Amino acid sequence: MTTTIREKPGFLQSRLGGLPRPFWALWSGTLVNRLGTMVMPFTGVYLTQARGLPLAAVGAVMAVFGAGSLLSQLLAGVLTDRIGRRATLAGGMLATAVTMLALGYSTSLPAILAAMFALGLVIDAYRPASNALVADLVSPAERPRAYGLLFWAINLGYAVGMTAGGWLARLGFGWLFWIDAACCVIFAVLVWRAVPETRPADRQETGGGFGVVLRDRLMLGFTAVVLGNALLYSQTFTMLPVAMTSVVGLSTEQFGMAMALNGVLIVIVQPLVSGWLGRLDPSRTFALGLAVMGVGFALTAFVTTTGWLAVTIAVWTAGEIVTAGIAGTIVATLAPPHLRGRYSGLFGFAWSAAAVLAPLLGGALLEIAPSALWLTTGGVGLVSAVGMLALGPAIRRR
């Protein structure tokens, strides 16, 4: 009995121990924020059903949101380094709460367009600040595990939020906006009260700014790799649902059941392997994850049943688990402490750009043939993996 009691803390310690208390405040706020992420997954449904907008207008609204999102990461990166990590994160969350409610009460198309642009600008403004906080608070050896735990919290919260959002939407869309806004406020308060400001006192402003980031060829190369990674993942919520339901002929229930496997595997497996993955070379690990994701998406070209779709999802989810936490670790390695916000902003910009490009490129390829889409997507993953291996020696020297 005594031996069993002693072993359990050791098991938990290897996965949850060794991280500072402010990190756990950030982790808790991230989880709460994602639990309340109910508006964005149902935005299209809300605009068509509650506001009666035609599909063309909905497309314009989402494009405006994407434009705001592209600017968001770069602006937030600058603010993270200038006014501080805590202020940028808390301010971004409060601004998101206000904008959420403004969107929920907007009835005219001009008001909806303005609210959606503002929402794109602020909804993910916390990301550069969050990434910089982890780099400031956590030792280099523990960063892969810390970033991986944040990834796990995001996926767990999103899965629960999606389920709850679908149920609450039937009661009225207003519930989604108020709950989402409330969770944003809770995140802001948690960070403001429990996370110290970590911005370096000596910011070395001379010669700083985005000019330094854009002259860092290694960071630019890594950003290109991240763009490839983001283009892969973005297909999961852009073209994959369309291809599986409209081309393969699966029902929405069948597709939803298969996609649920992604969240289940991440929630169960990722915490178990994050410590081990964190001890491996980041560049090679990231390249391995990209290659596995590429293979998984390429196999989608041969899907004809729900079972085979589940197999391909399991493959690219394995790659996703391998890459979790590694990208943030590499950005933290490349960035000088006083420019971590800007480096994280450029990293986030790659994801925002992919969210805009993925449906455009994916839609064009899907019109040619499903195999053209999935084999090209798989090729992007493999090319990105090769690029990551090529950058590996320089990253290790840095």
Write a concise keyword list for the protein shown above.
398 residues; mainly alpha; Growth Hormone, Chain: A; 2 domains; 18 helices; 0% strand; globular; disordered N terminus
3D structure, described in words:
It is a single chain. The chain is mostly helical. It has two domains: 20-197, Growth Hormone, Chain: A, CATH 1.20.1250.20; 209-398, Up-down Bundle (Growth Hormone, Chain: A), CATH 1.20.1250. Helix content is 81%, strand content 0%. It is built from 18 helices and no strands. The chain is globular, with a radius of gyration of 21 Å. It starts with a helix and ends with a helix. GO terms for molecular function: transmembrane transporter activity.
Please render the helix and strand layout as text.
Elements: H1 2-16, H2 21-35, H3 43-49, H4 55-82, H5 85-104, H6 109-122, H7 126-137, H8 143-171, H9 173-194, H10 210-215, H11 217-234, H12 239-247, H13 252-278, H14 282-299, H15 306-323, H16 326-334, H17 340-368, H18 370-397
Helix pairs in contact: 2-8, 2-9, 4-5, 4-6, 4-7, 4-17, 5-6, 5-7, 5-9, 7-17, 8-9, 8-13, 11-17, 11-18, 13-15, 14-15, 14-16, 14-18, 16-17, 17-18
Protein name: MFS transporter
InterPro entries: MFS (IPR011701), MFS_dom (IPR020846), MFS_trans_sf (IPR036259), MFS_Transporters (IPR050171)
Membrane topology: Multi-pass membrane protein
